[in-house]
């Protein structure tokens, strides 16, 4: 039997990626042989480039010669420490953080409720694009995910404008629009689908375009919970979606440009009707039997939706790690999609780490890339070329293996005080402010509360002990808290609106539960005089069984 030859357009794509990115791939691989040298050179370049900025002058960048001096000169920073620099640079155009003026801002949720606008320079956008294309090069080399069409799901490219008029939104959405014609011809979704404001309509349009394409071989989306949401929609509204494919018409409100509308395909509609009649339900294996790879996050809580998808996709479909990517920066790039080898972006970003147990015990012993150990877990601090200096990501990563002298990293979870089930990054302060405001408004006197993030159920449960016996309606309080969190956190609102997070649930705790919890933790070794309640935790990490102390009903 002769070996099946890849389609000509796929061969052209592989050749184009190879021609452009063989050199970049080799440069990154070469740098893994001596990460300390590469990182020191990068840090020096960042400091020299931005020495005349307000931040650089204040921290004496010109005199810094090595990572140790940098550490002494610049304390670690959170976004709130940098917010004034970001705002003034945007408003005035003066170089407060970077010598080059930002041309884009990546908006994400903030600790204090206000959104974080992460600046991106023109060179920064180029770096993001090149890393995306390097990843595509890796996927094309190691898998067959790009042989057919690719269902790529991104955020909205432009969500609004800063006071200066510079756009903010999702950089992945922006670059999706700017890809070359050779790559764009692979797209299943027109970029304009991401601009549909209504969540339900956007997901309906995504599902309709996806169903209309027979030969999807690759899927790309940051969080696999998005694919669970689309599958749920396909299985709950198959007739409406098949009709949309048949007629080439989306519900009112989609408002896509004429060149991006859904094309009627009666043959595909009949095919889908036959699949539905035969199986009684549509799944991804039936819809796309040629699916070869799903490019997504696999770390942290993403394992939960991936397990839900396992029975729905064709056997042998590769799950390709998208890499450690945050709104603030791209931490790794997958250079071997077949083996999911994710190498730090050590030529783009300067990394520092603190061992997990050390950080959680209050220590500040910083390590560089070449000082990490396989299997170790670490908190990440990053200096980027776009204006983040010794930035505390509050992310925990694990070293999975070594490539030459460089550790490969995978995301484990957010650090203490932050949870993220499906990318919402909910902060403890947001929970504290929202719960207290809601309980005051509804006249509920609170003695103790804790909110637990349940990754399996994709929901938050608020366990609350009231200090009095005044009656209150749990459903009303749950609605008020849920509404408050949506107002406080734009990404929580997005995940709730799209159905990827379930509504908040309230469970009443018996009198005295808060005291019992404290006594339990002190007995386990915490100092009573230093005990602090964590009001936001992951359910699987919480050592106390609050359900056993909940009132029935």
Topology summary:
Layout: H1 8-31, H2 35-49, H3 54-58, H4 67-73, H5 79-92, E1 104-108, E2 116-120, H6 122-142, E3 149-153, E4 160-161, E5 167-169, H7 171-178, H8 181-184, H9 199-212, E6 216-221, H10 225-236, H11 238-247, H12 266-279, H13 284-287, E7 293-296, H14 303-309, E8 318-321, E9 332-336, E10 341-344, E11 350-355, H15 356-360, E12 366-367, E13 377-383, E14 391-403, E15 406-414, E16 418-419, E17 426-427, H16 428-442, E18 446-454, E19 459-466, H17 474-488, H18 490-497, E20 505-508, H19 513-523, E21 536-538
Parallel strand pairs: 1-5, 3-6, 6-7, 7-8, 18-21, 19-20
Antiparallel strand pairs: 1-2, 4-5, 9-10, 11-12, 11-13, 13-14, 14-15, 16-17, 18-19
Helix pairs in contact: 1-6, 9-10, 9-11, 11-12, 16-17, 17-18
What does this structure look like?
The chain is 39% helix and 20% strand. It has a five-stranded antiparallel beta sheet. A four-stranded mixed beta sheet has the order 2-1-5-4. It contains 19 helices and 21 strands. The N terminus is likely disordered. The chain starts with 7 loop residues before the first helix and ends in a 15-residue tail after the last strand. The protein is α/β, with parallel strands linked by helices and 553 residues long. Strand 7, helix 14 and strand 8 form a beta-alpha-beta unit. The longest helix is centred in the first third of the chain and has 24 residues. It folds into three domains: 175 residues, no CATH class; 144 residues, no CATH class; 132 residues.
């Amino acid at each position: 039997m002769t070996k099946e030859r890849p389609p000509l357009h796929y061969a052209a794509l592989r050749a184009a990626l190879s021609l452009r990115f063989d050199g970049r791939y080799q440069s990154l691989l070469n740098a893994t042989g001596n990460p300390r040298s590469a990182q020191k050179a990068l840090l020096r370049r960042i400091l020299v480039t931005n020495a005349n900025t307000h931040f650089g002058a204040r921290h004496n960048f010109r005199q810094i010669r090595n990572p140790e001096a940098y550490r002494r000169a610049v304390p670690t920073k959170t976004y709130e420490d940098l917010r004034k620099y970001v705002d003034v640079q945007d408003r005035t155009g003066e170089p407060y953080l970077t010598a080059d003026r930002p041309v884009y801002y990546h908006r994400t949720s903030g600790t204090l409720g206000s959104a974080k606008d992460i600046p991106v320079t023109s060179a920064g956008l180029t770096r993001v694009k090149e890393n995306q294309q390097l990843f595509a090069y890796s996927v094309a080399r190691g898998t067959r995910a790009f042989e057919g069409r690719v269902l790529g799901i991104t955020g909205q490219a432009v969500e609004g404008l800063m006071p200066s008029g510079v756009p903010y939104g999702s950089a992945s959405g922006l670059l999706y629009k700017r890809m070359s014609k050779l790559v764009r011809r692979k797209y299943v979704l027109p970029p304009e689908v991401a601009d549909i404001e209504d969540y339900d309509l956007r997901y309906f349009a995504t599902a309709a375009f996806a169903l209309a394409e027979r030969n999807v071989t690759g899927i790309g989306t940051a969080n696999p919970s998005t694919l669970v949401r689309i599958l749920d929609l396909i299985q709950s509204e198959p007739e409406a979606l098949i009709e949309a494919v048949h007629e080439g018409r989306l519900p009112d409100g989609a408002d896509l440009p004429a060149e991006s509308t859904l094309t009627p395909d009666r043959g595909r509609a009949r095919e889908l009707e036959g699949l539905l009649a035969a199986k009684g339900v549509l799944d991804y294996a039936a819809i796309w039997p040629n699916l070869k790879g799903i490019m997504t996050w696999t770390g942290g809580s993403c394992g939960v939706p991936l397990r839900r998808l396992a029975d729905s996709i064709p056997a042998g479909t590769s799950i390709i790690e998208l890499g450690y990517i945050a709104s603030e920066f791209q931490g790794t790039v997958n250079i071997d999609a077949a083996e999911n080898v994710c190498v730090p972006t050590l030529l783009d970003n300067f990394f520092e780490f603190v061992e997990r147990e050390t950080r959680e015990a209050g220590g500040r012993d910083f390590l560089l890339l070449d000082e990490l150990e396989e299997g170790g877990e670490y908190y990440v601090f990053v200096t980027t070329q776009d204006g983040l200096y010794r930035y505390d990501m509050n992310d925990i990563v694990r070293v999975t293996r070594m490539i030459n002298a460089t550790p490969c990293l995978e995301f484990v979870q957010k650090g203490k005080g932050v949870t993220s089930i499906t990318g919402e990054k909910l902060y403890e302060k947001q929970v504290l402010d929202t719960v207290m405001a809601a309980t005051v408004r509804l006249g509920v006197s609170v003695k103790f509360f804790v909110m637990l993030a349940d990754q399996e159920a994709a929901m938050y449960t608020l366990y609350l002990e009231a200090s009095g016996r005044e009656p209150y309606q749990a459903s009303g309080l749950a609605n008020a808290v849920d509404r408050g969190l949506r107002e406080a956190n734009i990404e929580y609102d997005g995940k709730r609106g799209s159905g990827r997070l379930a509504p908040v649930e309230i469970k009443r705790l018996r009198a005295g539960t808060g005291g019992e919890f404290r006594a339990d933790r002190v007995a386990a070794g915490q100092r009573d005089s230093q005990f602090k309640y964590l009001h936001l935790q992951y359910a699987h990490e919480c050592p106390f069984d609050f359900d056993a102390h909940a009132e029935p009903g």
